[in-house]
Write a structure and sequence with these properties.
This protein has 231 residues and is of the alpha/beta class. The protein has one domain: Rossmann fold. The protein contains seven helices and eleven strands.
């Protein structure tokens, strides 16, 4: 049975890395002592080693060891034998490109579908959707495909925000960008706010955290989804 946590972000304002999620992760990773970390998204160009160490410091607080996938000789074997997997945030284009280059997309999907606990934050959540086409990231590399893991029947727009009431900014909103996506695709999109996450258990998907999300369906009005809702 699939067991995923798909968080919009790793870090809330004025909080330490992953702090708001740690109580949930203790339960999610129960009976697990080591997590395989995939640092390919490299936020801000952070090195794999530095990114892995940042994750390791956070996971130590809940008694978990972290192994960076870049530290092992065979990345595919590391995924297939992992007790749990975390894919961190950063640039989704870079992440997807590396997953294809390392031939990890298929084995990653298989192990998650058979029950390996998975955590994604930001870009690591984006790849759980059907495609990466609703990411906010800049296309700094050109992956061979936009198709991702398809572990949920949606796409995600993480870090979802709406314009401030008094904003004078006239650029496109996230909602407009998603509407543009729906001129070429019928994949529904969940706008996931900071501090919210999706909990996936088998075929059940629920919205967790204290904030609402927004569900966008082609040719329909956007719907505000309350915390605790099952999709």
């Amino acid at each position: 049975m699939k067991r995923l946590l798909l968080a919009s972000t790793s870090t809330l304002y004025n909080e330490a890395y992953l702090a708001y999620l740690l109580p949930t992760l203790q339960t999610h990773f129960t009976r697990v002592d080591e997590v395989l970390f995939i640092p390919y998204a490299q936020p801000g160009g952070l090195s794999y080693d530095a990114y892995t160490e940042m994750v390791n410091l956070a996971f130590k607080k809940i008694g978990l060891r972290v192994k960076g996938i870049h530290e092992v000789e065979n990345a595919v074997s590391a995924v297939t034998s992992a007790k749990a997997i975390f894919v961190g945030g950063g640039n989704t284009f870079r992440l997807v490109n590396q997953l294809y280059e390392q031939q990890l997309m298929v084995p990653l999907k298989k192990v998650i579908e058979r029950g390996t606990p998975y955590l994604g934050t930001s870009a690591g959540s984006n790849i759980a959707g059907r495609t990466m086409q609703t990411t906010n990231d800049m296309p700094i590399v050109d992956p061979p495909s936009y198709t991702t893991l398809g572990l949920i029947p949606y796409n995600l727009n993480v870090h979802y925000i709406e314009p401030a009431k008094d904003s004078t900014h006239k650029g496109e909103t996230r909602a407009i960008r998603i509407k543009e996506f729906h001129t070429v695709s019928d994949i529904p999109v969940i706008g996931l706010r900071e501090g919210s996450w999706l909990k996936v258990e088998g075929d059940q998907i629920s919205l967790q955290g204290s904030l609402s999300a927004v569900l966008f369906v082609q040719n329909e009005a956007a719907k505000v989804i309350a915390p605790g809702h099952y999709f």
